[in-house]
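Sample pair:
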Amino acid sequence: MVRTMASLRAPLRTARRVRHSLRLSAGLPPADAVMLDAPDSRLSPALVAAAEGAYGPAAKLLATTRDTAAWELRDRYLGRLAAFAHGRDGWLREWLAAAPGDPDAVLVRAALAVRRAWEAPAAVERLREVAPLITAAAEAGPHDPVPWRLALDHARGTRASHTAFGAVWEEAVRRSPHHYGCHVAALRYLSASWQGSHRACFDFAERAAEDAAPDSLVQGLPVRAALHLLLDPGAGGSTAAVPPERIEDAADLAIGLSARYPAGDPWPAGIRNLLAYVLVARARWEEALEQFRLIGPYAQSFPWSSGGEDALARFLEARDGARLQVASATPLWARAGHGGPPGHYA
């Protein structure tokens, strides 16, 4: 009898998958509609213009973020513009030639220099060489926390002492106490891969989330700490210093944050991608599938590129895996709703 029951399980799971997988695809964009690191409607024209050698739209975009103190947007746009300039910097060189003291041009120059230094063979030495450019960006924008986010990344790369890093951190939070990019930079410094530990990561992330507003991206900081742990091959996804409950709590907190934003919103897409990765790793399939629905077409390179493979392919594979896992766990004659629990009968 036991053998008979066991022999029936595999075909039963297959039947469940066949019956429910199509229905569970509702709300998931087709694979060919999913975009990797897609720019939003404000950044896209600036990138198109830069590709044509024109810096005007990028200058206007960053000036607007500075004038309105939209520091989170400023940091996000800066990262994308610096990444673009890494391969095609003619527009930036023209901008600097036309307005060498422009605080936005100076900031992009510093971000590009830091990016190139990180990728250099002698990264520490190169990072030390570009320090004056970060200082110049900070002086050009005295109220701007974004140059201090660059300074935090720079301090991590040069393996600055905790005291030195703390001094930079104080300058950053004095300008914007809950700036997400600065908090991410600090979390990286505190990670086990650099100058800290997984416990230090979680402690910092949880304290920051407690102090942040409910809709702040900083609420997603603990799930990023969980991701650091899960991606650490030496930790194996769990350590004595970080019990599994803290990973689950981090995921729950990020689920609450995600719920505060509309489905398909590009703004929280980064957090949602991190959260989906963690939920898949923890085999929380239904919740992972719901996050994939909320992500919509906005896949992100990180964390899906962490395995060194094609990030978009890994995202789609994880999404399909979550869908199939939920389908196979749904009773054969149940009506699997948009995100309803397995076993829910109409």
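The beta strands are 35-36, 298-299.
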